[in-house]
C-alpha cells in the first residue's frame, strides 16, 4: 500500500513538473514575440509614449485633435462648416479633411464646447462621415438650424450623447487625467457672451504636463474657474475666445500661469482677434504665443516625464 502510494505521488510530481515547464516555455515564447521588433509577425501593438495634440488651422474657429499614447482619438470642436473652395482659397483646413489626410478613421469621442457655428459647424460632416463613440456636450439646448442638424445627425448615426458639466471626469484612458471645470449650470440665455460662457472647459494632464482647454469663455466664466485655485496652473493654455478682449482676464492668466498660449484665429478676421490688450497681458506674463493664422497647423507632443517634457512642430515658422 505504501509502495503504491509513493509511486502515485512520484508520478503526480513528475506530471506537475512537466506542466509547469511547458507553461514556462509558453510564457517565454509569447514574451519573445512581443519584444521582437515585428512581434514575430503575429502581434501588432500601437503604443506611442507621447501624447499628441493637433491644433488644426480651421481659420476663425477651434478644432483640436488629441491622440493618446494608447491610440485613442478625441476631437474638441470642429471649426465652421464652409465650402471646400472657400477653405482652400483662405488656406485653412476643414476638420473632416484633416482627419482623413492623417489617417484617422475612428473618433473615440467628440467634445462640443458650445453651440456657436465656429465650433459646431465643422463637426456636422465629421459626425456624418466618421465612426464616433460618444459626444460630450454642454448642458442646455440652443435652437438654431445647426443645433437641430446636430441632433438629427446624432440620432441617425446612433451616437451616444453625454451632458458634461463642472466636476465630471472623462474616462479617456488610465494614462490621462481629464476633468471638466465648467460649466456648472444649463444655458438660460441666447446672448452671444452667455453662450460663450457656457463653454466646456477641460483640464488635461499627461504625466507632469498639464493643458488647459478654455473654449470661448469670457471674463465672467474665467472668474468662476478661478475657484479651483492653483490646481488650474498649466504649462499650456488654449487661449480663451480666440484672444478677444472680453476674455483673458489678467488675474485668471496669472493663476493659470501658462508657458505657452495657443491662439486659434483666422487671418485678417473681421473681429480683429487677438486684441492688443490680450497680447499685452501674455507679454507681461512672459508667455510664448503660437497662432494658427501665422503658424498654420500646430502640433504638440507631450512626453510628460517632467514639467518641460513637451515640444511643438509648426507648419510655418
Question: Main attributes?
Answer:
Metallo-beta-lactamase, Chain A, 317 residues, disordered N terminus, single chain, 2 domains, seven-stranded mixed β-sheet, eight-stranded mixed β-sheet, 22% strand, 17 strands, alpha/beta
Q: How does the helix and strand content classify structurally?
A: alpha/beta
In the CATH hierarchy, the third-tier topology of the largest domain is known as Metallo-beta-lactamase, Chain A
Strand order of the largest sheet: 8-7-5-3-2-1-16-17
N-end to C-end Cα span: 89 Å
Principal-axis shape: globular
Tell me the radius of gyration. 25 Å
Tell me what the CATH architecture of the largest domain is.
Answer: 4-Layer Sandwich
Please give the largest β-sheet.
8 strands, mixed
Helix content: 25-40%
How many structural units, i.e. domains? 2
Low-confidence segments, ≥5 residues, pLDDT <50?
1-9, 33-45
Please write the CATH class name of the largest domain: Alpha Beta
> Which band does the percent of strand residues land in?
15-25%
Summarize model confidence as the mean pLDDT. 87
Q: What string gives the helices and strands in order?
A: HEEEHHEEHHEEHEEEHEEHEHEHEHEE
Count up the helices.
11
Spell out the CATH superfamily of the largest domain: Ribonuclease Z/Hydroxyacylglutathione hydrolase-like
Number of strands: 17
